[in-house]
Amino acid sequence: MNDNEKVAYDYTNGAIKAINHKLWYILIIIVLIVMIRNWSGSGVDSTDKSRWNRSGITLQTDAKTGLQYLSCGGGLTPRLDKQGKHMRGN
Question: Could you tell me which residues come within 8 angstroms of residue 54 by beta carbon, excluding any fewer than 6 positions away?
């Protein structure tokens, strides 16, 4: 390996190490944010078992009709009252 190749190798190796350090810092910050959010109970509702075991169900209200739906992932299901009638938002 000549001097130019060694300089290029050292430069590339140093750049990769610097990027890896930054990625680790970003990952640690993201993990801390998620842990603080879960610990504080932010976003927890009555469908969640606990702060750490969330259902993922969200309430959707149709802007035109006012009818309410529950969504989890990709699907929607009507929100029904005790009599089985479709519920409307307030």
Answer: 43, 44, 48
pLDDT tens digits along 6-59:
777 777 877 788 888 888 889 999 999 988 887 786 777 777 777 777 777 888
Distance CA 54, CA 90 (A): 25
Whether 20 maps to a domain, the answer reads yes
- Total domains in the chain come to 2
50-61: burial string, b at 16+ Cβ within 10 Å, e else: eeeeeeeeeeee
Instruction: Report yes or no on 49 lying in a domain.
Output: no
Same domain? 19 vs 39: yes
Domain that holds residue 15: 1-44
Does this model's pTM top 0.85? My answer is no
